[in-house]
Amino acid sequence: MEGGEFKASQLGTKQYWDSMYVRENVNFEEIGDIGEVWFGEDSVEKMVDWVTDNIEPNTKSIIDLGCGNGHLLLALAENGFQNLYGIDYSPSAVQLAKSVAKQRDMEYIQYQTVDFLNEDDWRQSAVYDIVLDKGTYDAICLDPAQEEAKQKGEEGPKERYVEKVRQMMGTEGSFLITSCNWTREELIRDFGKYFEYSSHVKYPTFSFGGQTGSKICTVAFTPK
């Protein structure tokens, strides 16, 4: 994959997310706050709207990669979906997601602690109809290991991510990703080896310096 890259950041490390979700578990236990909604409520609503517009509840399996506190899956559950799965490499995130789901009587949402980029034997036979990502690819691109791999001319977490997502899907599934670091064109480029662009979600735009764009983008892909 060619094109722009981002410098490594603590946002790309497991240590950062573990410590953050330890704090958010404490907050949830003390005041019932489930924690931050990354990219805001609007991004969640847009992704849920895309899913509800394209599939009927419980006819497809849906997995959220890097589910965090599970907010996206909770929103889908509120819209009648039950065949829901969430994975995250942070045990503290999964603990929080399970606690929130239990509080809301949504324990049918299945959460699991999985570092899917580095666990080759993880559910290799499992195939999901809809794969969701809200910010996880962004974080992976900030992993210091990505910069190290680039310097060595090797495949890094960013490339492994694209391959893993493709392995999770059948021939007729959909992959829906929301990013604040990459434009629609850049995501189409990065995922073009295994995926075809299908559609995108429209967000309010702004103009600055003669350029027009939006703060985030949500793009849908189908497997090649």
TrEMBL record:
<dbReference type="InterPro" id="IPR025714">
    <property type="entry name" value="Methyltranfer_dom"/>
</dbReference>
<dbReference type="Pfam" id="PF13847">
    <property type="entry name" value="Methyltransf_31"/>
</dbReference>
<keyword id="KW-0813">Transport</keyword>
<dbReference type="GO" id="GO:0032259">
    <property type="term" value="P:methylation"/>
</dbReference>
<keyword id="KW-0963">Cytoplasm</keyword>
<dbReference type="InterPro" id="IPR029063">
    <property type="entry name" value="SAM-dependent_MTases_sf"/>
</dbReference>
<feature type="domain" description="Methyltransferase">
    <location>
        <begin position="60"/>
        <end position="197"/>
    </location>
</feature>
<keyword id="KW-0949">S-adenosyl-L-methionine</keyword>
<dbReference type="GO" id="GO:0016192">
    <property type="term" value="P:vesicle-mediated transport"/>
</dbReference>
<dbReference type="GO" id="GO:0005737">
    <property type="term" value="C:cytoplasm"/>
</dbReference>
<dbReference type="GO" id="GO:0016279">
    <property type="term" value="F:protein-lysine N-methyltransferase activity"/>
</dbReference>
<dbReference type="InterPro" id="IPR026635">
    <property type="entry name" value="Efm4/METTL10"/>
</dbReference>
<comment type="function">
    <text>S-adenosyl-L-methionine-dependent protein-lysine N-methyltransferase that mono- and dimethylates elongation factor 1-alpha at 'Lys-316'. May play a role in intracellular transport.</text>
</comment>
<protein>
    <recommendedName>
        <fullName>Protein-lysine N-methyltransferase EFM4</fullName>
        <ecNumber>2.1.1.-</ecNumber>
    </recommendedName>
</protein>
<keyword id="KW-0808">Transferase</keyword>
<comment type="similarity">
    <text>Belongs to the class I-like SAM-binding methyltransferase superfamily. EFM4 family.</text>
</comment>
<keyword id="KW-0489">Methyltransferase</keyword>
